[in-house]
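Figure 3 (text version): structure tokens given as input.
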């Protein structure tokens, strides 16, 4: 039966990188017998320009109907002066919360071919394979009350609320422990339990859930220490589980261990493995439209889509192998150029190269 995929390119480099990922999806249909129906819709700034809304109803309805969603990136300077409730980012946050995509998986995996693209020493990053499990529909991103208000003395203040319900912590902790069971069986929970009650509670709940997983080793770090440890000795980590905001920050940090933020895919899953797939990088307005962005994070997000939502593990492997093959051939977009003897390629050339090696695997 045909699966429907919602394609949401968004803003900045979003359309360029998504175009390359769509080529991969098309090749999977032509050469690997995958039966898909792709439907494109507007989100973020592109949607604001066309409809006045960052998440138009048609887009949300399409995403709800879809078997999986592929998203590029949202945001840019053009929309930064809008009220925060109307910015492009609200389109993305709205999709996450409306679709109940509470579990965000961000694998920081270093391809051996990119060991010299990282700013860290090869011996620190070689063999790196971390899975960051970020809570995605709660915490300070969504907590209420929030806003900017004027006090009695006339001074203004901005405020947000960090709040986690027990059920929200339990379900994300389970995702982390289950993932660890498929890996090295270690979970590090990251919090700020020495200062913030909401994350002191987070730690208590994670410990309780951990008792159901005696085969998985559980450790805890404060977020400041976790950031330091990620740079000092990243290979100590297997699965890291953390709150929405800490996960946002630590996953950008971890991405640089792998050579470039342009390499990190992500999956955002609901309780039934329905998912939205997106690169973790943003819309990079400074390089938009120049055909220089790295499409590999988006293409690797397609691999995650195949694995988690479409249950096509063999095809997911094929896409990942095709990516590895082009890296082995020495092709590099400029963000991963490093210092070796490599061939600098554009966004579309990188996409074409992945297609070519993918077809060879058919
Ligand atoms: C990410 C991004 C988003 C986030 C922005 C664009 C809203 O940084 O997916 O990491 O903060 O979650
Ligand atoms: Mg981020």
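Below: residues designed for each position.
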């Amino acid at each position: 039966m045909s699966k429907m995929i919602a394609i949401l390119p968004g803003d900045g480099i979003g359309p360029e990188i998504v175009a390359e990922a769509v080529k991969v999806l098309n090749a999977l249909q032509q050469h690997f017998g995958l039966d898909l129906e792709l439907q494109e819709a507007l989100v973020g700034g592109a949607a604001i320009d066309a409809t006045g809304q960052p998440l138009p109803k048609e887009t949300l309805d399409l995403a709800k109907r879809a078997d999986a969603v592929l998203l590029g990136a949202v945001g840019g300077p053009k929309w930064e002066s809008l009220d925060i409730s109307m910015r492009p980012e609200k389109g993305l946050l709205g999709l996450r919360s409306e679709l109940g995509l509470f579990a965000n998986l961000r694998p920081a995996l270093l391809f051996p071919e990119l060991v010299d693209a990282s700013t860290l020493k090869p011996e620190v990053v070689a063999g790196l394979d971390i899975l960051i499990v970020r809570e995605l529909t709660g915490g300070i991103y969504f907590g209420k009350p929030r806003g900017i208000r004027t006090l009695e003395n006339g001074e203004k203040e901005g405020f947000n609320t960090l709040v986690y319900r027990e059920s929200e912590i339990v379900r994300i902790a389970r995702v982390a422990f289950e993932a660890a069971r498929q890996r090295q069986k270690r979970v590090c929970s990251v919090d700020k339990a020495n200062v913030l009650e909401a994350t002191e509670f987070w730690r208590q709940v994670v410990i309780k859930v951990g008792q159901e997983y005696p085969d998985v080793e559980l450790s805890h770090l404060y977020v400041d220490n976790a950031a330091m440890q990620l740079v000092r000795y990243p290979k100590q980590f297997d699965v890291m589980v953390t709150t929405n905001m800490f996960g946002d920050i630590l996953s950008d940090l971890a991405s640089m261990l792998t050579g470039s933020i342009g390499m990190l895919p992500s999956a955002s899953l609901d309780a039934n493995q329905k998912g939205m797939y997106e690169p973790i990088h943003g819309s990079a307005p400074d390089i938009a439209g120049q055909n220089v962005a790295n499409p590999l994070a988006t293409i690797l997000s397609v691999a995650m889509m195949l694995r988690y939502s479409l249950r096509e593990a063999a095809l997911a492997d094929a896409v990942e192998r095709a990516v590895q093959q082009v890296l082995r051939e020495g092709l590099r977009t400029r963000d991963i150029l490093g210092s070796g003897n490599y061939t600098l390629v554009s966004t579309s050339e990188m996409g074409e190269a992945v297609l070519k090696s993918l077809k060879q695997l058919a």
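Residues 14-32 form the longest helix (19 residues).
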